[in-house]
Hints:
Structural class: alpha+beta
Number of helices: 1
Order of helices and strands: EEEEH
Strand content: 15-25%
Low-confidence stretches: none
Mean pLDDT: 85
Helix content: 40-55%
Number of strands: 4
Oligomer: single chain
Shape: elongated
Amino acid sequence: MSERLPPSRVPRSEQLAGSPVVRRGSQWWLVTGAGSILATDPAFTGELDRFATAMAAADREVARLRDERAAARRERR
């Protein structure tokens, strides 16, 4: 099953790390300029889930470190 959706119309918040893979609801889609294909292989989608979870954890840690660094700079003033 495919759906035409130009990559430029895919919300970045759903795109996985700048890749041509997006999550819409609980489903993963491979998106190209020619259209979209639903990813249905459980091993593949499981890896995408794990990668998305790891990326979210890394993003949170980077944000925490930035906040910590900014607080330390403010204290030095």
